[in-house]
Amino acid sequence: MQIEIEVNNHTIGARKGETILEALREHGIQIPTLCRLEDFTPTGACRLCVVEVEGMDRLVPACSYPVEEWMKIHTHSPRVIEARKMIVELLLSNHPDDCLYCARNGHCELQRLAEELNIRERRISGRKNSSNLDLSSPGIVYDPSKCVLCSRCVRVCEETEAVSTLDFTGRGNTTAVKAAMAKDLNFSNCIQCGQCIMVCPTGALHDKSYLEAIQQAVSRQDVTTVVHYSPSVVVSLAEEFGLKPGKDLSGLINSALKKIGFDQVYDGTFAAELFVMEEAAELADRLDKTEHLPMITSACPAWVKEMEQAYPDLLPHLSTVKSPEQIAGSIIKQFCLESSDRGQNDIFSVAVVPCPAKKFEAQRQEMTQRGISDIDAVMTTRELARLIKLFGVDMHAIEPLEADAPFHRDASAARLTAALGGTTEAVLRTLHHQISGKDLRNPKISRMRGTKNTKSTHIRLGEHNLSLAAMSPLEKVREIMADLQEDKSLYHYLEVMACPGGCINGGGHPFYSAPKTLRSRMKAIHQNDDHLATRFVHHSQEVVEFYRRYLGESNGEQARRILHTRFTPRDVLL
Amino acid sequence: MEQIARILERYPFVERENLIPILQDIQREQGYLTEEAVKQVGRYLSLPASKIYSLATFYNRFRFYPLGRYHIRLCRGTSCQIHRAGDLIKKVSETLNVDPGQTSSNGQFSFEVVSCMGACGLGPVMAVNDTYFTQVTDDRLEEILASYLETQP
Amino acid sequence: MEEQDAQKGLQQELIELLSDASNRSPASQSKEALDRLRRHKVKHPVIALSSTTAGMIAGSRETRQAIEKYLSERDIEATLIANGSLGLGTEEPLMDVQLPGKTRLTFRQVSPEKVNDILDAVFNNFVPPEHVLCQHPNDLHEPWENVPCIDELPFFEGQQRVILGNCGVIDPDSIEEYIAHGGYHNFLKAIRNYTPEEVCDMIDSSGLRGRGGEGYPTGKKWKNTLSSSAEQRYLVCNAGESDPGAFMERMIMESDPHSVIESVAISAYAVGAQKAYIFVEGEYELACSRLQGAIEQAKSYGILGHDIYESGFNLNLQLHQGAGAYVCGEETALIASLEGKRGMPRPKPPYPSRRGFLGHPTVVNNVETLLNVPVILQHGPGWYSRIGTEKSAGTKIFSLAGKIERSGLVEVPMGLPLREVVYKIGGGIPDNQQIKGVLVGGPAGGMLTYNHLDTRIDYEEISELGGALGSGGLVVMDEHTCILDTVKYYMYFLQQESCGKCIPCREGIRRMYEILDNITQQPHQEDSRATLQRFKGVINLEKLAQVVHDTSLCGLGQRAANPVLSSIRWFRQEYEEHIFERKCRAGVCQKLRTFYIDVDLCTGCTICAEKCPTGAIVGSAKHAHFIVQEKCISCGICYDVCKFGAVISK
Predict the structure, then answer these.
(1) How many contacts does A have with B, using Cβ atoms within 8 A?
(2) Who among B42, B50, B52 is closest to A165 (CB)?
């Protein structure tokens, strides 16, 4: 029902039942918020969105208070602005004043609020919190002293990821966000998906950075520096350089990485192709033997950790194929530089990835050979942008380049793996060929596209009636895992991604707030696929050649030795 | 472990409303909460450990450490405060070397500042285990503490 | 065995009495039982010892042992019961003695060593005047001579005990005594004679307002819930009083638990709830065990449960023990706590009366509010609304404490000037000190000055002065109480008790505490930056308090600013003295004291110089010493250790 309210002495229309904030935004009136998260129930915690409503004694939070006909609202009266200012000043009063050194310098919401509210003087100073920096985990650094207790990470961790690692502890002046039993993150059930970093308004949660080591390595003459980047990275970097979100930057990335000083630059899509080949072969094998079905994808290391800790009894369902990044890591060290005279010790292998979980994965013991990590250092997309800026590369001026052979760009369906449903789509294409010997007539599987968080499709393939599904984030997976524990699942293949929408929404990409960004990344991925010459991984010349030279049969002995791994239960406090 | 299992049996309905009563029962029987308790209760109620830890640290009464042999409670209600209970808190902490909410390292003393013991007419009020002391003055406090310090083994 | 049978027989009789809707005079057999339960006729001496927490802390357990020993040694047949409390806290432990045929006597401050003297005397028909407090006269018993009647005592004279009538009179563990004193009749009257709407109407027209918070009309709140179409509704009785310095609810629950249950039962019926919770602080162990016992008794009498006295009304009443959080006094926090979550308030609307416990409409009222309900049913809304003032009907219970002669549980009609409570009932301040002010309503209340003592107890009048009736804590301050120290104490308490959710409350209270702490810290060794910060803080304290008041999420934060705002308003002088003159007139803020050594008194014993932690005292042995002010940290150790009174504090 449409009603009319008065705002700043003007009448505006509003819908009954919507909040004051929603009504104001529709009319272009911006009000600062801090604890608000799109699509989540308002908590009313930060009080920055307060407005003055005539006839009410106190100020009213616009984010949670519904509009009513009689309301006369003042959104920027002196009383309101003073209150908002004071609230931000309260947060600043005991904040560590190290903005210039902070990981979020320039991207910090608190900084922005202070700027927008024109805070120019420290009126109140408070005692600083004593807190310990948590550096324990490979991907995420937690600095409680910068935490403003907005609860956004807590809500995402619980409601999006259903992991609930982080929660409030204590009360009043000792309130803090911590893991259960106040354990450090690496000893908690944190899956390092990084979604908490994405929503953190300040630098309290940020990337564990290995950029220093990478910088040093590229400057050394005696090591060969190799870098590869994941498919999702190429469509997620644009906005960092003021380019159109979703724009495919692979050529520019190749060029920039070369300029930074990497000796070899590989497009990680090739590893994703091998991943798709192996998954398809493994699935065909399991279908043949009818064991451990559904097969669950192992591409997402955050999900793999969750499986190991929360569903150890279901681990046999997990595919044993390494993630594309780790496949890239192991083949780079094993084969790619075989022609060069350098041994494994002289290679410094770097991965550019969509999330902190890949950093965690790279440090897993399973991902080493004779004590040497397959991947030496990992950076997220955000950090890639930082590195490019650090090395003074002007992305608007450089010319695109091709990646180095053998992993240079062969147009490939494996790029699809960056978006949720894409792995299923690519695997199904290859599986179809593997089982029936024929290619799908229409390789586009529409049911695996779109922005929905659970997607499923059914297909008759030889004697099999297959059901395949893709789902993210982990909150969506709980139900099906419960079914599986009771042996009730009807699926044959489950693609699980920890981040909503898959790797294109990973916790390591640039901070953004518009849902549009995610859609444009997804569109870029799908359009790319629709215009490919070869839409089947198994027809890629490079892939066929690589198997012939190094790996033999897909899912064969040699391929399994190099491209597969194993997973073991983890005992952590859930 | 079995003790916790027995407590859980008293709550046949797996409802979150039972969380506080369950933790109260565990603490009553075990003296304090442990990681094992958090784990078992979490499994039983299908709640993440962080939720249980989060809840337990919110309320005053739950603790994750054992009490001392002598548990000292000092009232800091408004009336006791006006009768200078604030000074007594400092004195207890200094004399026994234990801060409010802590147990001394030798396990002899634990110290808790409570918000009201309900005898406002007789403040400041303090208790050592089940023995109450009223209208405690500075000197009186010294005597009381000394008597417990003497009984240390 | 015999005792059990007798008990069963009595239970049957009382159930029949309650079942008898016509309210005829009871059968002669019942009459005899009732007389006994009302102690109209006692065969043996009855000794009742107040056994509330306050009594226990004052030593009633030891007194009880002494009484037991006395009786067994002399082989005296007497009934010893654990009683509730009359509420006169400073005179605890109170002991009542009723000899057959004589009126009941109350003795004060009965420590174990007094037991023999008192009982010896009373059993010889003599009342030792130094120990006796009063007698409780009635038409049936012969009064004692030269013993004041309870109504003549100033503490009781000014009170109007509408709710507290049973406290200290009946045995809290006996449902029989409660019924004999008219208990549960109002509940049965409600479910038999009135529809829930009618009960709501009565409450509405009585003018009853919520006692805990800002005085929202109870009848309106109830009707809002009753009118919802939901099938499941809940009633929650908030007895989680964790206001430091308020003990009223605790004492009532310990003294008269059945009245709480009856009140909850009637209210649940009125709002259409079939499930009700009483939320009590788990720390109130005695209150919890008495309430739990009372619930079991009520169940065995069929007062709780299914189809109560064939009325078709079902009520499942549960006790929930809180785990210690002041913020759970806020209704949404309380509901979160009941649901097994952190007691964090959520934004309203939606109000609990529409979306409360587990999403169902829920009425949350505090105990004191609900205790008025049976009274209104018994005497009618018209009678009730005539007590008190036009806008604030009924009585208000206070826990009177602080620097006062007689502290305790007090029930007075609304509209009574505070002066009456403080001077007449409380007896003023000991040692003829001057009253500096009163703290009304606990940490979330306000501070009033001596000049406000003529303020009437009334929601509007008190809140106009920046206070709040709130919890009913009434703490009196004398000239030796420092206003800043007290406000600082409240801020310290509240910064711990804030749930930590919203920024103005969590950070604002903490900053206010820090600013106050700064003011009361000593100025030595302070660099100019620190001085500047302190002044800035002070200048902004009032603004900050206003923002905390304006923007906090729940009542805790909104009202947390009250002590700051009201103290700045009424005691500005004292603030200025602390800030500018660096002096605390009450002598409480230790760090603001300056110490000097009187050269005439100093013997040069060197003790002070040895003990001084900063080496601020200089002087050689047997010569007068001197304090170097720049080094002194005002710890006061020299003052404490000097045996000659040579160290002077200014």
Answers:
(1) 50
(2) B50
